[in-house]
Amino acid sequence: MARSYWVYIMANRSGQIYTGVTNDLMRRVYQHKTKAVKGFTTKYNIDKLVFFQEFNDVRDAISAERRIKGWKRFRKNELISELNPDWKDLSEEWFEEGRDPSLRSG
Length: 106
What we know:
By secondary structure, this protein is an alpha+beta fold. It is 36% helix and 20% strand. The model has no long low-confidence stretch (mean pLDDT 91).
């Protein structure tokens, strides 16, 4: 069974962003939303998933994350706006109230 790896960008209401990579996008977004891991995203209330891209090879995902992190802010904003012009939370309907996605079945 092939694994999936994800590059993702989270944002807050003010437009501050965080770029990351994970092998479980739903779990990682949930961690950001619930502030389960202290750090930049917790400090700045970054809790909206505004961009994600899937990869089959972890090296490709890490390379894409590094490339995006190296871009100027304007280019990152362009990337998000190309696919998500309203900067909507793409994970808005992923979670049932109070349910940890790591407990999901199947």
